[in-house]
Design goal:
The complex is a heterodimer. By secondary structure, chain A is α+β, with helices and mostly antiparallel strands. Chain A has twelve helices and twelve strands. Among the domains of chain A are: 49 residues, Uridine Diphospho-n-acetylenolpyruvylglucosamine Reductase, domain 2 (2-Layer Sandwich), CATH 3.30.43; 107 residues, 2-Layer Sandwich (Enolase-like, domain 1), CATH 3.30.390.50. In chain A, the strands form three sheets. In chain A, strands 4-5-8-6-7 form a five-stranded antiparallel β-sheet. Chain A has a four-stranded antiparallel β-sheet with strand order 9-10-11-12, with helices on both faces. In chain A, α5 runs antiparallel to α9 and α11 packs antiparallel against α12. The longest helix of chain A has 19 residues. Chain A starts with a strand and ends in a 15-residue tail after the last helix. The longest helix of chain B has 19 residues. Chain B folds into two domains: 76 residues, Ubiquitin-like (UB roll) (Roll), CATH 3.10.20; 72 residues, DNA polymerase, domain 1 (Orthogonal Bundle). Chain B is 31% helix and 14% strand. By secondary structure, chain B is an alpha+beta fold. The chains are: A alpha+beta, B alpha+beta. Chains A and B meet through α2 and α6 of A and β4, α3 and α4 of B.
Chain lengths: 342, 179
């Protein structure tokens, strides 16, 4: 870990000012669960670390549009166990609880969850090239150990995935990210927050370097009764997703009024395809109708030596998640998407 | 990485002045403690290297094993991923702070002894602190829930069945006490 200066921000404006002053060499710290690890690995080498953990951004409150506003500094645990999150956005609660460990969820914040870095092995190993860590140095993952890497939206420069579970549910719920900076406040639709790697995998989102996330807005949702988060991983708990699916259905009897499907573990950002979701509108909630959605979602998939399996696994996970969603949120227990009768 | 290696700045960043230490006040196991720490000192290193509270263990040092688990303001966290300076004013409870003033073991400690819930013992302080935190969080209602909630604490000896038994015993004792 390199040495850095430390300051504690007393206000959002102070935090933004300190970050701007550090001119790219500053990092905000709140939960620290990812940043401290990256500091130890020498992947992150900031001059200035700005502590934002005491800013008053911890509340979870009603939003003006009838939705819910999640403070950027509310912890993942406080968010997942919040009664209104559990009642109105059960897929979000379950996605958060499917990630990390209880200790990490007690520390990690909502804003930090959005900004966490990939767990691609090469990004973490400073002895090896990585276009995300050191632009232009190359991507050893493409022909290397790429089991954990993406199969959708990858580029010749980077095939890393975004590791979050929470973000997959937020994408499906069409959340909005509220940010503040020297140019004022703005709201970024979730689909436009994270970016694909392209030729600039070092850029992972549309947040400006001198901006700070203040809240995440959840719009009112008709999906609470039929919401699941299914996660497929190498062990039953405390592992990153190989493939995960947030599936939300708005049903009128057996007929689907609208559907949302977001995928994790497969791309540089939470993966959604509104055209695929539209295939379900007006259809009955059956496996036969779910299959084309899975096909459409993975139509452009490109596997690498060790992760071809994610394409078939992903399709099956989509069908499974939609089947679970059709049964209803209440029929599913636990954090791994298992059904009460399975 | 040694917490005291303040001169290991070679090649890093563009800092010209070496950042100094700052004063922090932590209440550790009920005792208010004032210390000077460098910003990059983790809570784990502070406990072990500055205060000789070596009950808290350094396992992976990357938040993957849970052996460094302590309670900060009553909540279980990985002390290896916590910068000590950020916890100024907080209450820290480590394994050394769980027993009563007369040395009587905490019910969770006693349960681990009773149930033979460890072999080598290296993960045990973290397991116990994590279990105490879990019960406080109110998430210990079934075997499955306890296993899931304790997944952040690895035991390389594989004492999991007995750890589960110990937690259930301590939980039952806590419930009985509360009733």
């Amino acid at each position: 870990m390199i040495n850095f200066s430390y300051s504690r921000a007393g206000s959002v404006a102070e935090a933004v000012g300190a970050k701007g002053k550090a001119d790219g060499a500053g990092r905000f710290i709140a939960g620290g669960t990812n940043l401290v690890d990256l500091l130890k690995e020498n992947v992150e080498r900031p001059c200035a670390v700005i502590d934002i953990s005491r800013l008053p951004l911890k509340t979870i409150e009603e939003a003006p549009d009838g939705g819910l506003r999640l403070g950027a500094l509310a912890t993942n645990a406080d968010t997942a166990y919040h009664p209104e999150v559990q009642r109105r956005y059960p897929a979000l609660s379950r996605a958060i609880l499917a990630g990390a460990s209880a200790q990490l969820r007690n520390m990690a914040t909502n804003g930090g969850n959005l900004l966490q870095r990939t767990r691609c092995y090469y990004f973490y190993d400073v002895a090896l090239p990585c276009n995300k860590r050191q632009p232009g140095s190359g991507c050893p993952a493409i022909k290397g150990q790429n089991r954990v890497c993406g199969v959708l939206g990858t580029s010749d420069d980077c095939i890393a995935t975004h590791p979050s579970d929470m973000c997959i549910a937020l994408a499906a719920l069409e959340a909005a990210v509220r940010v503040s900076g020297p140019r004022g406040e703005r709201t970024i639709p979730f689909a436009e927050f994270h970016t694909l790697p392209g030729h600039t995998p070092d850029i992972e989102n549309t947040l400006a370097p001198d901006e700070i996330i203040t809240a995440i807005d959840l719009p009112p949702s008709p999906y609470a009764g039929h919401s699941v988060y299914t996660k497929v991983r190498d062990r039953a708990s405390y592992a990153f997703a190989l493939v995960s699916v947030a599936a939300l259905l708005d049903l009128d009897g057996d007929t689907i009024k609208s559907a949302r499907v977001a995928l994790g573990g497969v791309a540089h950002k939470p993966w959604r395809l509104p055209e695929a979701e539209a295939l379900l509108t007006g259809k009955t909630a059956t496996k036969e109708n779910f299959l084309p959605v899975a096909q459409a979602l993975f139509a452009g998939a490109h596997g690498y030596e060790h992760n071809f399996f994610k394409i078939e696994l992903g399709k099956r996970a989509v069908v499974r998640a939609l089947q679970l969603a059709a049964r209803g949120t209440a029929a599913i227990k636990g954090v791994n998407g298992q059904t009460a009768d399975a | 990485m040694n917490a005291f290696s303040e001169l290991d700045v070679a090649g890093g960043g563009t800092t010209t002045a070496l950042p100094g230490k700052s004063a922090v006040t932590l209440t550790i196991n009920g005792k208010e403690t004032r210390l000077e720490v460098a910003p990059w000192t983790t809570l784990l290193d502070l406990l072990r290297e500055y205060l000789d509270l070596t009950g808290t263990k350094k396992g992976c040092d990357h938040g993957q094993c849970g052996s460094c688990t302590v309670l900060v303001d009553g909540k279980r966290v990985n002390s290896c991923l916590t910068l000590a300076i950020m916890k100024d004013g907080c209450e820290i409870t480590t394994i050394e702070g769980l027993a009563g003033p007369d040395g009587a073991l905490h019910p969770m400690q006693q349960a681990f002894v009773d149930c033979d819930a460890f072999q080598c013992g290296y993960c045990t302080p973290g397991q116990i602190c994590s279990a105490v935190g879990m019960i406080r969080e109110g998430h210990a209602h079934s075997d499955d829930e306890i296993r899931e909630q304790m997944s952040g604490n690895l035991c390389r000896c594989g004492a999991y069945p007995n750890i589960l038994d110990a937690i259930k015993q301590a939980y039952a004792a806590t419930e009985k006490q509360a009733a």
